[in-house]
Amino acid sequence: MDGLERLWTPHRMPYITGERAPGGCPLCLAPDLPEDETLVVARGELVFAVLNLYPYNPGHVMICPYRHVADYTDLTEDETVETAVFTRTAMRVIRAVSRPHGFNLGMNQGAVAGAGIAEHLHQHVVPRWSGDGNFMPVIGQTKVLPQLLAETRVMLAEAWPASGH
């Protein structure tokens, strides 16, 4: 034995190998799944908030238009506004339930820019805490997440305003 401890994360293998969910775009499929099978936190008229299946930190959500569109410049004015409103609401909700010290917000436009699902636009809302970049990702190239996705989804969904924003 080499003396190393191992964290097994087999759910990440499809992401590493580039496999996609059967049946099409996972961001198009997510809003139509039954509540107990989805990571959708909140639904709006034109966009929805969904937990990232491979989060950087607990509470990492993505704001996605329902419409399958790849580029930010292809959003309608109403989709752009609701994306911004949902991003703002996600920050408020995450602050209320998790008290992060800050956030990373962003979109990776295209595969070359790092988009894991380049064909369906999504705005990342990543809560950050002082010291959350410890030795595990730096030395061990492993991210340790202290909360299950299903628990995070319930916590955020219950705190999301009934109006959607």
Structural account:
The protein has 165 residues and is of the alpha+beta class. The chain has one domain (26-159): 2-Layer Sandwich (HIT family, subunit A). Helices cover 28% and strands 15% of the residues. It has five helices and five strands; from the N terminus they run ααβββαββαα. The protein has helices at 13-17, 26-29, 77-98, 135-139, 149-159, and strands at 40-43, 47-51, 61-65, 102-106, 123-128. Strands 1-2-3-5-4 form a five-stranded antiparallel β-sheet. The longest helix has 22 residues, at 77-98. It is globular. The mean pLDDT is 83.
Topology:
Elements: H1 13-17, H2 26-29, E1 40-43, E2 47-51, E3 61-65, H3 77-98, E4 102-106, E5 123-128, H4 135-139, H5 149-159
Antiparallel strand pairs: 1-2, 2-3, 3-5, 4-5
